[in-house]
Amino acid sequence: MPYSLSHNDTASDRLLRQQEISQSKTTYRYSQAEADGSHIRAPHSLPDAESFGNMVDTSTGSAIEYQPQLNSAVGKMAANVLFHSFFLTRNYAKVRHDTLGDLLALEDQLADDPTLDNISAYYDGLASVVTSAGTSNDTKEYLDLYQNWSQAGVRGKGSELYSDTVFANQAVAGPCPTVIRKVTIPMLDAYRSNGLPITDDIFLAASPFTQNGDTNLETMAAEDRLYVQDFSMLSSLSSGHTGAGSDEKRFVFSPIALYAVTADSNPRLLPIAIQMRQNDRNPDHWDPIFVPHMPNAMVYGGNVNTSDWSWMVAKTCVSCSSQIYHEYFEHLGRAHFLVESASMTTNRCFSSRHPVYAILKPHLEGTLAINDFGRDTLVNNGGTVDRYMSCRIEDFRQSAAKAIYQTDLLALIPPVDLANRAVDALPYYPYRDDAVPLWNAIHSYVGNFLSVFYPTAADLQSDLDRANGGELGDWWYELTTDLDLGSSVGVLKGLNLGSLQTFDDLVTVVAFIIYTSSVHHAAVNYPQGDYYSNASLCPATVSRPTPIPGETNKAYYMEFLPPEAQATFQMNQMMILASFQFTRLGRFEADAFSDARVDSAIAQFQSDLAAIGTQIENRNAALPAGLRYHYLHPNNIPQSTNI
Ligand SMILES: [Fe+2]
Fold first, then answer.
1. What residue segments make up the domains of the chain, in order of their start?
2. Ligand 1 centre from 643 Cα, in Å?
3. How confident is the prediction for the chain on average, in pLDDT?
4. 521 C-alpha to center of ligand 1: Å?
5. Is CB count within 10 Å lower at the N or C end of the chain?
6. How far is residue 337's CA from residue 460's CA, in Å, rounded to a whole number?
7. Are 378 and 74 in contact (CB under 8 A)?
8. Residue 373 alpha carbon to ligand 1 centre in Å
9. Alpha carbon 289 to chain centroid distance?
10. What's the mean pLDDT in 382-399?
11. Fold exhibited by the domain 330-523+592-630
């Protein structure tokens, strides 16, 4: 049946639409409020319509092979994911031989009786099959965990992985490419007077900068060559518990990392200074600043026994902090929670005949189901994230929740976000280079699609008229307004999505939801396997406080890293999350749309995506292997947030 707006329908059709919406609001009921996440529009129970049953893992090109007979779709999803994790762990972790039999027994048990209890038993067993459960004092022993890891598509091999170059590239091509911003001279002054007393003394030692004549930070800022990743927002997070009987300590830092672009013929981003926390505002107690070229600084290939490892510790601290911020905001909050809100309101407020429902539907598939699974197993107290991440899980959830409803969400649209961060002069920033054309393609697609149904401004205004059955108005109200739904549900916070008054406003909001559920989630999810699976490169927790600059030995660095059991658990989780791609952006099911008037918009969208794919392939072909960025190739972007 063709799509339509309710005010253009006959009275009998309008009645049918209202009946459908009434039923939807019964099916998609909001959950009872929880203290941590009452603003999230979570379902009271997972509706039957929300299923993974027909989803195909397009990364392997075949349907998932393991189909346990669990009652819920989410249970099937969970079992499938965990079944794959057996093989991932075997392939990439160093399994302790004397317990390999236990692992196999757990696998058999799960295959025979694929209940969630046995899935939990597998997880409990997993932590016991790694090399050791303690902290290794030997870099080789610890790093042997990753002996096969370079096969997983990493950014470099061996010691190269721990270089300043790879560290800097994480900020522009890793899992969290949305924090780095240009430092202006006023910003530099503000940092200096508020706890980061960096001076030009950093140019007294030999470095790629002094070798090219750099002596002055202001000059670099004036030349658009000074950048920062500022994670001071993490200072409000507290450390998580470590479980009964564990002597492991966890630390949450809030670092500021300064970077600069070299002035030579091969301009590249490199870190120049790191401060690990900013909690103490007393100038007498400002935290030390670590720089890469301190005397006796550890470099790979150098003397590991007599060198100073504090720069390595500082870089590792930044990677850990970046991961915490990335997971609570960019991943859980921005991709999963935000899209969940869009899914609930879209399902509740539109009839299936509405064009906004039709265009959004493919991009909301599976989000409620994966979030339901995640609330029960990933971000719950005692769950996966609680087991391997530094911060308190309650802080993690609350930070995700608050960040979403306190953020001006339209400032996250790529052209706006990139302009705010002033990053156009960065010489290598593939996330930027791919995100903008993808945003433009989605925005254009939404405009072409919806313009069929809103030929005049009056059509939009009628659809916004809640009092007269305007479905768009109901959707917008429920999405953006603080809703007090009574004591059984509580107050749901509205999303800050600006105003909806014009057709352009509508196109922007709908495009933002589609971009977030597809492109943004892909940008922050799939690099996890390549980076976060290696806890020596990107630990989710660290176990020691700030070291002493110039006086930090290898043993301290090893103690700073998470215990091996934590590291293997982290590896397993991150491999899983990056291993599934159920759909591809722009590849719609044959029966996805029921109105021939949108065919040309879809064809144009698919053509635009193909052109972007070719552009990315050409770019990557001209780059060294370690710099190729493939996460936002349209073939690698699922339609929705579903893993
Ligand atoms: Fe995800």
1. 66-126, 178-318+533-562, 330-523+592-630
2. 5
3. 85
4. 6
5. N
6. 28
7. no
8. 11
9. 28
10. 88
11. Lipoxygenase-1; domain 5 (1.20.245)
